Amino acid sequence: MSENYTRTASHDLLQGLVDLGIEYLFCNLGTDHAPLIEEMAHWREQGREFPKVILCPHENTAVHMAGGYAVATGRGQAVLVHVDAGTANAAMGLHNLCRTRIPVLLIAGRAPMSTFDSATGGRDTYVHFIQEPFDQASVVRPYVKWEYNLAWPSMAHEVISRAGAVMQSDPTGPVYLTLPREVLAAPVDAQSMGAYGQQNHLPVKAQGADTAAIEQIAAKLMAAENPMLVTAYAGRNHAAPALIEKLASLCGMRVCEFNSIYLNIRRNSPYFAGYNPAAFTEQADFGLMLDVDVPWIPKTTRVNPKAYWAQMDVDAIKRDIPMWGFPLNARIEGDSVRLLTQLIDLIEQTATPAFKAKANQRSLLIKAEHEKNQQRAAVMAKEPGKLNAINPHFLCGAIGQQIRSEDVVLNEAIRNTMAVFEQIPRELPGTLMGLSGGGLGFSAGTALGIKLAQAQSRVIHFVGDGSFYFSNPSSVYAVAGQYNLPILTVLLDNGGWSAVKESTLRMYPQGEAKSSNQFASDLGYGTDFAAIAEAAGAHGERLVEPSQTDAAIARCLAALDAGQSALLHVRITPL
To answer: Which domain range does residue 437 map to?
Structure first.
């Protein structure tokens, strides 16, 4: 260590990250980070361990990578971005993390405040004057559980500890911390040096429920003639899918997903009733909403007015959704695995022969429906399509035949989401992730983060051409190559934003836009997306002819298994 070394807030901040268990810093750096860069150099000289730095050319990649790693491990990570500009670029990713309840600590520098005094780290370049907004945190305030500005150097370690406790408390989610450059460079008060052991910022985790509350729901479920369950993100806990299936089997109950975020029940389970709860809500006399934000679209769904609806959710009140209203008779907030275990135990203890007979009878009908759904999906995959208009169900069916059960699939296919879900059925917990937020471009960076956490896994993400643009692909493939994180991108190119077109048609089915075929959504077929991947050293594959589908998929998987990222650019049925 240099004789001139002075312990600063940067030292305590790094130590705080180490003590919190942060393994990675996903970074997009700027002039505000000079004190941290210098401190890291000191630590390297001393041989001290600190979070590994992953440099990301764009903040969208950094935020989603941190999110993917947290999804795969359950351990929140840290992202380091540049002042207000980096915060703005990170905001869309923060929106997705917020809606998916993923713990990530976003740390942003703040432009120096001092101009004429001799403070270390004061303004010394043009951007230091223009990168200080009135309220930097306002850019991401709607999407974080907590925000703070480090105003005093001796607080650095305590602030990191507090941030970690908040982000890892249920419901988990992103937090935001800003770091003025002068504070990072300021020496730490010697009196604070021994205070670390006095800090007890522990996260609060969701628990089970009062027995009486579970008994009330169990009684209504066991008395039901036509029960159903709707879920979206219970499968974030890998123990949940087996419990959901056990409850369904025990009660003869359909399980539906709507806007699936994780695998919540095996797709070949006879109790999985698909992705359209509205098909059953009018007949159901009991419903359980389990870890789901939007169980159906009220405008197009009819619900039995006499049904009893119960909610079990880690975020029952929906803290970050200003208005939320669905039919409810009982509401329990807690850990879904604990709650399901309590419910199952109670039903097993009190089940009568008559109840078991009714449940078995319902199960026979549900199993027959499931078989019909599988046959329907198989029929949809038979038609290959034609030149430059490959059937997405055919394509996804072919991919489903070639990939392994343990391969991880991320579904950001947007208007072709159902083709991915129905033709590439996942069976193992942790092998599926969908988009819960509204910010497109999530899957590529998230795939990198999952790959970082699960080096032996194949990670495959599906995107439309519109969402691919939002993913900052040049940044994604640069990181994939730099850190040896090969992923497979399957790009379903329909020539534009079909979601925009379909939304217009839903509102104005006979309007002027339809009659003139002007939807402001046509992006054309001119871009060679495979070339973008190839420019970064990935394998690029172009697929326009249905008969070449199997061979193209095989080449991409071979490249992936050899350690090279790949992009399969498929021309599907145009919008």
So the answer is: 381-571
